[in-house]
Write a structure and sequence with these properties.
single chain; 672 residues; alpha+beta; five-stranded antiparallel sheet; 23% helix
Length: 672
């Protein structure tokens, strides 16, 4: 029953009174301004804004009450903004089975499609955690994105269902924040090796960003949580046993998971003006929720207190993630969260990632590749300038996906050397958390694909990728070297051996299920699964997933409670950690050169993909100018946009028109 709107209609006897569909009312929502009535754009995070134990209990209670009203038993996870799992509550007596699939019955047989997380394990908890992490990681004071938003931006067309349109702007982001990443942290701290036995979880939340058991989720039922205008965490729900996507966004659903999760946000709901449905990209409005509070069968404000509940299940201990207790979250932007102001970049209002001792995890350092490059390796001073120049461009840039309109871009910047080693990371205030791991993926992807030994590296990955069936038994294997063969057939025999400079935009062109992107009936790119042969899906992207799938499945088995070890900090079956946190296939990175010698890569993530492209490309350009030409973007003659596979030219970077807040300059990347 739409209880709020029914009351209004009875009172006012309006002749036309409808509602629902997630348009958003301010009831139950956080304000979007600080106590001085200034719009929150990053300044609202503070010591006083974090999820307390009482807050977590209230979120759980409202989700449980809505589950009961809907007649289902749900599993609910709550995380803080850096991914600490604060609680997992399961209403059922034991964990129900969860099926990973884009269709029911499953029609795609590759990748993660058709994998069933068995009953009587913690598979349901892993799905709920992934949804909660997604709501938290995609959101900030300037934008509130849900797993429904993620669903819209990762499919083969944008919007999903609009055939012959390009793929989603964050195509591939679902395979980030992985447990095997060398950037994301475990609740027990950084993993330097596979633990011999389960290790004890801490009693309190710790530094992040934390890992996600299934990457980022595109299954409706995950939302951010806010207090006083700032994002403080996320909530995720699984009740229907399906970890899936919504392939048709042209209608309005009443998804069980989404209804429960949205009810759980009452009192902590995203500010209405920051929700995805107030933000447009390419003339299309994002989706946030197909329900509003007035569409729910029970008023969430009337939910009984958590401590008064009986017969509602209980808290669940999840291996590697949480105890069977409720803990408080961290205050974002403070050392305890793992993200704090950068003292040596204070003039840029920049932030760094820190460990439990408040030490910068990734201070600028020189390249580790002197054995390969000799004196051409990047110096620490050059890395520092690259970070400074890129953040300066970001601070000038007009954001694409933030409110209020005219806000500056908020991103994370990563620099790696030619072997993929992290040389420095820096972020702007209030950048969404997901962009950290993704910016590193982007930097490494541009670097490895631009390397003359790229083919040799990928051919050296000889351990097969194993697909499993619904019983988690092996059913098929694929070989990573086969993707090299496909690329050399599609592009030419020199592909991945001649040092062509690949940006993530160019490599992403070759990683789509249609080439050119979005055109139905066209063949897939060489790094993608085949759409025509029913092999591609959001859960089966191609080389990107296949590089990391073995480790993803190993971790899921570990976390679900199987007799299996956890993963270490390398997602790829290679001793060389050149792409240790996996690859990324949407724009926002370029390789870095000294003359015509590849010396590293830069990745940027957190705003629109054209903004990410511009910040990475101009970051290198501006740093080169500041350093007297010591480093540079790839010489134009070796860039991937000189290639025309199948008669279609690849793209290198695409920069927005009139991108700056303080200038009307246009074509800012032209001629550089």
């Amino acid at each position: 029953m739409n209880w709020r709107i029914v009351g209004l209609c009875l009172t006012l006897t309006l002749s036309a009174c409808g509602g629902g569909g997630g348009g958003g009312s301010n009831a139950g929502a956080s304000p979007d301004r600080d106590e001085d009535d200034t719009p929150c754009t990053g300044q609202c995070a503070g010591e006083e804004n974090w999820l307390t134990v009482a807050d977590v209990k209230q979120v759980l209670a409202r989700g449980i009450a809505q589950s009961r009203a809907l007649g289902v038993q749900s599993t609910i996870a709550v995380v803080d903004r850096v991914g600490n799992v604060l609680a997992v509550h399961r209403m059922a007596g034991s964990g129900p089975a969860v099926t990973i699939s884009t269709t029911f019955p499953t029609t795609v047989s590759t990748g993660l499609e058709g994998v069933v997380l068995p009953a009587n394990t913690n598979g349901d908890a892993l799905a709920a955690i992934a949804k909660a992490v997604t709501g938290a990681y995609l959101s900030s004071e300037g934008n509130a994105f849900s797993t429904r938003t993620a669903n819209q931006i990762v499919q083969e067309h944008f919007n999903p269902g609009e055939e012959n349109q390009p793929s989603g702007p964050l195509f591939g982001v679902q395979f980030s924040q992985l447990a095997c990443s060398d950037f994301t942290l475990a609740a027990t701290g950084p993993q330097t090796a596979v633990p011999a036995a389960p290790v004890t979880l801490p009693q309190t939340a710790t530094v992040g960003p934390q890992r996600s058991p299934l990457g980022l989720s595109a299954d409706p039922g995950g939302f951010p949580l806010y207090k006083n205008g700032t994002a403080v965490g996320g909530v995720g729900v699984i009740a229907d046993g399906r970890y899936s996507i919504d392939k048709n966004i042209l209608d309005t659903d009443r998804d069980i998971d989404e209804q429960i999760a949205f009810a759980a946000t009452f009192g902590y709901a995203a500010p209405v003006d920051r929700r995805a449905d107030r933000i447009t990209v390419e003339g299309k409005t994002f989706r946030f929720s197909d329900v509003d509070f007035g569409d729910l069968p029970e008023d969430p404000e009337q939910a009984p207190a958590y401590d008064s509940l009986t017969g509602a299940g209980g808290l669940v201990a999840v291996r590697g993630y949480s105890r069977n207790q409720i803990i408080a979250g961290t205050a974002f932007g403070r050392p305890g969260s793992g993200i704090r102001p950068a003292t040596d970049f204070a003039d840029l209002d920049a932030f760094v990632f820190v460990d439990q001792g408040n030490n910068n995890r990734f201070p600028p350092r020189a390249g580790t590749d002197s054995a390969q490059l000799g004196g051409a390796a990047l110096s620490a001073a050059e890395v520092r300038q690259l970070l400074r120049s890129a953040i300066t461009v970001a601070n000038r840039a007009r954001a694409q996906i933030r409110r209020p309109v005219g806000s500056q871009a908020r991103v994370t910047v990563s620099i790696v050397d030619s072997q993929g080693e992290i040389l420095g990371m820096l972020r702007t205030r209030d950048a969404p958390v997901f962009g950290a791991d993704v910016s590193l993926q982007k930097a490494r992807t541009a670097t490895i694909f631009s390397s003359p030994d790229a083919a040799a590296f990928f051919r050296g990955i000889t351990t097969p990728t194993t697909y499993v069936d619904a019983n988690l038994q092996p059913k098929a294997q694929v070989l990573i070297p086969d993707y090299v063969d496909a690329a050399q057939t599609f592009i030419g025999p020199q592909a991945l051996t001649d040092g062509t400079a690949f940006s993530d935009r160019a490599g992403g062109n070759l990683s789509r299920p249609f080439y050119p992107d979005g055109i139905r009936g066209n063949p897939n790119g060489p790094f993608s699964k085949s759409f025509a042969n029913n092999e591609w899906s959001v859960f089966s992207s191609g080389m990107q997933l296949d590089l990391s799938l073995n480790k993803i499945l190993q971790h899921v088995l570990f976390a679900a409670g199987a007799d299996a070890p956890d993963v270490g900090p390398n997602c790829v079956e290679s001793a060389a950690p050149r792409i240790a946190n996996g690859t990324q296939i949407f724009p926002g990175s370029v390789p870095i050169y000294r003359g015509s010698t590849l010396v590293g890569g830069i990745g940027v993530s957190g705003d629109g993909i054209d903004q990410d492209d511009m910040i990475s490309f101009l970051g290198v350009h501006e740093a080169g100018l500041a350093l007297g030409g010591a480093i540079n973007n790839a010489p134009p003659e070796i860039r991937a946009d000189r290639l025309s596979p199948a008669g279609e030219r690849l793209r290198y970077v695409q920069c927005p028109q009139t991108p700056y807040i303080d200038s009307d300059e246009q074509q800012v990347c032209s001629g550089k």
